[in-house]
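Task card 7
Instruction: Convert sequence to structure tokens.
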Amino acid sequence: MANTQQKTKTKWSKRDVIFGSIGAIIILFAGWLVYERYKPAPTYPLGDSSKLEYVGEVGYGCWLFCDSNPASTYYYATDMSVEEVMGYFRRAKSRQSPRTIDNVTDFTLDTNDGQDISIYYYTNKQDKNLNTYQFKRTDRKYIVSIPSFDYEIAKKAI
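Output:
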């Protein structure tokens, strides 16, 4: 007698495929969430870190149901005066005199190629608006902020 074995064919039901697909999607989504939570935060240096030290960013906006697209504001600690910060961007000139309201000085620089850089200079690091964010600790006296859409322009103006 010959020993014959029958090959059994596994048949996947539609239910198995649906549940398997949903499970795979859930696992991929959970992996993406873990990655986003623990990946190293990017930094946005602006030239010499001994003059402008990157201390953090604040994001705002979204793609749906917001008044603006996603963007950020980058914050830098410094010991430079307003005039020194304006001079730090050698390839840009001040459009107008800086104006100060409630310990915040704002000014706009025009670059040599006709683009603008908006900068806020905070003389009080304990400003109520700044205290709500978790910035890197620093001994520097002042904080400078630049919007993300001006970052590349500012880098080229140094």
